[in-house]
Design brief:
CATH architecture: Roll
Number of strands: 8
Number of helices: 5
Oligomer: single chain
Structural class: alpha+beta
CATH superfamily: Electron Transport, Fmn-binding Protein, Chain A
Order of helices and strands: HEEEHEEHHHEEE
Distance between the termini: 27 Å
CATH topology: Pnp Oxidase, Chain A
Shape: globular
Largest sheet: 6 strands, antiparallel, barrel
Bound molecules: flavin mononucleotide
Length: about 210
């Protein structure tokens, strides 16, 4: 395996200042739809980076579940490692990579919890087994073994048998409200296109970055 020799010359598309929309969330919606149409695997999967109060970062993949005019929504356990980091430091970053389109989107923003009612709306449409999983998993905590998790799952299965499964209090959504969004389009010979939006007092400012 020779990683030194492994590279791809990007040539599918271009990204010009005169073709981008003035609002980056509208622009994101177009790119997301194109990623879905391109049969990209898990097009709504994004890397979420959070950090501790003193700036030690950590990343993991979560699923984008809603794009609102104000930001990007995902769901998780509020007591997980990411949940604790967001409680201490609400700055975070999101990253999408759509290899089929040779595209990347980078987002920087501020995370906050969505309302309990909004979280309920999504929880209600989840499959029953996912609902039980939300109850059974003490996400990010150390557990003795797999059997422990399966026993917890079984306990909740019995507890809620024949009943509606409510949303656990410690499970719900966050919205990341962006102040920076960058659209990256791979181009030949590493001369890629990068268009960055930064939120200013006068709205979104659009600039080109060197690749
Ligand atoms: C494709 C993919 C999608 C995922 N989606 C979610 C998600 O939407 N919410 C979530 O809490 N974890 C999701 N996970 C698991 C997270 O990556 C992570 O393991 C978990 O949230 C615990 O992270 P933490 O300990 O940093 O809080 C996903 C993982 C993958 C690979």
């Amino acid at each position: 395996m020779d990683l030194f020799d492994m590279r791809r010359n990007f040539s599918l598309k271009t990204l010009e200042e005169n073709e981008v929309l003035s609002n980056p969330i509208d622009m994101f919606q177009i790119w997301l739809k194109e990623a879905i149409d391109s049969k990209s695997m898990e097009p709504n999967a994004m890397t979420l980076s959070t950090a501790t109060k003193d700036g030690k970062p950590s990343s993991r993949v979560v699923l984008l579940k809603q794009v609102k005019t104000e930001g990007f929504v995902f769901f998780t356990n509020y007591e997980s490692k990411k949940g604790k980091q967001i409680a201490d430091n609400n700055y975070c970053a999101l990253n999408f990579v759509w290899h089929e389109l040779e595209r990347q989107v980078r987002i920087e923003g501020i995370a906050g919890k969505i309302s309990g009612e909004e979280s309920d709306t999504y929880f209600e449409v989840r499959p029953e087994k996912s609902k039980l999983g939300a109850w059974a998993s003490p996400q990010s905590q150390i557990i003795p073994d797999r059997a422990y998790l399966e026993a917890l799952n079984m306990d909740y299965n019995l507890k809620f048998k024949g009943k509606d499964i409510p949303r656990p209090e410690n499970w719900g959504g966050y919205i990341v409200k962006p102040y920076l969004i960058e659209f990256w389009q791979g181009r030949p010979n590493r001369l890629h296109d990068r268009i960055q939006y930064i939120l200013t007092d006068n709205g979104w400012k659009i600039e080109r970055l060197a690749p």
